[in-house]
Each structure stands twice: as structure tokens, then as C-alpha cells.
């Protein structure tokens, strides 16, 4: 149970970083 919040936070951070890179690569403003 201890790793659950950490994993969720890491996944969320990864998805946000990926979305930002995707937005930048398509010429859109970053989400964050």
C-alpha cells in the first residue's frame, strides 16, 4: 500500500511530461 501513491504520482508526472513533449512537437502550447 505504501508504493501505491508513489506509483500514481510517478505515472501522473510521466503522462504530464509526455503530453507536454507531444504538444510542443505538434506546435501547441504546453499543458503545464
Identify the overall geometry.
rod-shaped
Q: What is the domain tally?
A: 1
Q: What is the makeup of the main sheet?
A: none
Strand-pairing-aware structural class: mainly alpha
Radius of gyration: 12 Å
The sequence of SSEs as H and E is: H
Number of helices, counting only DSSP H or I runs of 4 residues or more: 1
Could you tell me the strand content as a percent range? under 5%
Number of strands: 0
Walk me through the topology.
Elements: H1 3-25
Task: Explain the overall architecture.
With about 30 residues, the chain is an all-alpha fold. The chain has one domain (about 1-25). It is about 70% helix and about 0% strand. It contains one helix and no strands. It has one helix spanning about 5-25. It is rod-shaped. The N and C termini lie far apart (about 30 Å). The mean pLDDT is about 80.
Outline of the structure:
Helices cover 72% and strands 0% of the residues.
Question: Main traits of this protein?
Answer:
32 residues, 72% helix, 0% strand, rod-shaped
Amino acid at each position: 500500500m505504501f508504493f501505491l501513491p508513489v506509483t500514481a504520482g510517478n505515472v501522473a508526472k510521466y503522462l504530464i511530461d509526455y503530453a507536454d513533449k507531444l504538444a510542443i512537437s505538434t506546435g501547441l502550447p504546453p499543458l503545464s
